[in-house]
């Protein structure tokens, strides 16, 4: 399945800042370090030169990815019409059959973060939640079987 091109405004800004940092600060610094290491002579056994060249390739690869990705991403801002239903950017409080409560935010695949409880719009849970309302029952097929959740609360961060 193709990944979606949706992203929050804050997520887009974070990727844009990373691109600018890599291009304007990190790459020139590493380029200078490689140049300095190359001036020392034998490059075949020069660890700083070898590591610097490797780091430059990593930076260039990430810069290319970010440049292309930022062009295709669509920023999805909060709209008052979303209130009461689960859409992109929503925080959702779910309760399972064991009365365990969890909160998730639905974000783009470029910004999902398990440590923040941010799940990708492309995940099975997020796809099952889209369009639902408080008190709806949501069924999600998981690797361990069918999971049933109840929506307790829906809210949005107005960025």
TrEMBL record:
Record SUPFAM superfamilies: FKBP-like, GreA transcript cleavage protein, N-terminal domain
Biological processes, Gene Ontology terms: DNA-templated transcription elongation; regulation of DNA-templated transcription elongation
Keyword Manganese: no
Keywords: DNA-binding, Elongation factor, Protein biosynthesis, Transcription, Transcription regulation
GO molecular-function terms, A-Z: DNA binding; RNA polymerase binding; translation elongation factor activity
Superkingdom, natural source: Bacteria
InterPro entries named among the record's database cross-references: GreA/GreB_C_sf (IPR036953), TF_GreA/GreB_CS (IPR018151), Tscrpt_elong_fac_GreA/B (IPR028624), Tscrpt_elong_fac_GreA/B_C (IPR001437), Tscrpt_elong_fac_GreA/B_fam (IPR023459), Tscrpt_elong_fac_GreA/B_N (IPR022691), Tscrpt_elong_fac_GreA/B_N_sf (IPR036805), Tscrpt_elong_fac_GreB (IPR006358)
Annotated ranges, domain Transcription elongation factor GreA/GreB N-terminal: 6-75
Domain Transcription elongation factor GreA/GreB C-terminal: 82-156
Record function comment: Necessary for efficient RNA polymerase transcription elongation past template-encoded arresting sites. The arresting sites in DNA have the property of trapping a certain fraction of elongating RNA polymerases that pass through, resulting in locked ternary complexes. Cleavage of the nascent transcript by cleavage factors such as GreA or GreB allows the resumption of elongation from the new 3'terminus. GreB releases sequences of up to 9 nucleotides in length. Necessary for efficient RNA polymerase transcription elongation past template-encoded arresting sites. The arresting sites in DNA have the property of trapping a certain fraction of elongating RNA polymerases that pass through, resulting in locked ternary complexes. Cleavage of the nascent transcript by cleavage factors such as GreA or GreB allows the resumption of elongation from the new 3'terminus. GreA releases sequences of 2 to 3 nucleotides.
Family affiliation: Belongs to the GreA/GreB family. GreB subfamily.
Protein name: Transcription elongation factor GreB
Organism: Nicoletella semolina
Source lineage: Bacteria, Pseudomonadati, Pseudomonadota, Gammaproteobacteria, Pasteurellales
Gene: greB
């Amino acid at each position: 399945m193709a990944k979606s091109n949706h992203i929050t405004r804050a997520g887009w800004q974070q990727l844009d800042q990373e691109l600018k940092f890599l291009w304007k600060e990190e790459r020139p610094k590493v380029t200078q370090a490689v140049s300095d290491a190359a001036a020392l002579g034998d490059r075949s056994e020069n660890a700083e030169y070898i590591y610097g060249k490797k780091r430059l390739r990593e930076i260039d690869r990430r810069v290319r990815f970010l440049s292309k990705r930022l062009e295709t991403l669509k920023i999805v801002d909060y709209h008052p019409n979303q209130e009461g239903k689960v859409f992109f950017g929503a925080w959702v409080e779910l309760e399972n059959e064991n009365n365990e409560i969890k909160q998730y935010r639905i974000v783009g695949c470029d910004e999902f973060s398990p440590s923040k409880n941010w799940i990708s719009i492309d995940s099975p849970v997020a796809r099952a939640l889209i369009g639902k309302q408080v008190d709806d029952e949501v069924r999600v097929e998981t690797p361990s079987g069918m999971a049933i959740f109840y929506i307790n609360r829906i809210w949005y961060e107005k960025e």
